[in-house]
Amino acid sequence: GGVGKTTLLATINNKFDEEVNEFDVVIWVAVSKDLQYKGIHDQILRRLRVDKEWENQTEEEKKKLIENILGRKKFILLLDDLWSAVDLNKIGVPSPTQENGSKIVFTTRSEKVCSDMEADDELKMDCLPTTEAWELFQNAVGEVRLKGHPDIPTLAKRISEKCYGFPLAL
Fold first, then answer.
1. What is the pTM assigned to this prediction?
2. What is the Cα–Cα distance from 135 to 121, expressed in whole angstroms?
3. Where in the sequence is the domain holding 89, given as residue range(s)?
4. Which of 11, 75, 101, 121 is deepest in the core (most CB within 10 A)?
């Protein structure tokens, strides 16, 4: 946790939102530890900007609606923070194929989830080495703030080391 998986996924999401791309729709879904298909359905339907009629529908009806819409679109689905495998059929998300050109990208802390989700490609992210985390922190904070008080550099360096290489920012 804390190595930047969500930040990387957010950057990908923003890039697709800002630039013309090959996808009809880009969908970001925050999943988290307490996997709830209702929440996933609702986030997808909100992003698809479907009329509010779906809010009172059953999970099965929501699934069919998602299936119907995404079955006709080239989409990229970004699933953030998977703690266990997500059954895409239960959500109504068509499997990405070469023919439909759709993609699914997800973040997880678990290699087992990658295996269970049958990921085609994996990118392992590690913490920054302490020196790189410190350099990133200095660049983000700026020299003026770091030199604002004689104790700040020493304290900030100590905190950076205790955070196991996670980059810090103020």
1. 0.71
2. 30
3. 5-117
4. 75
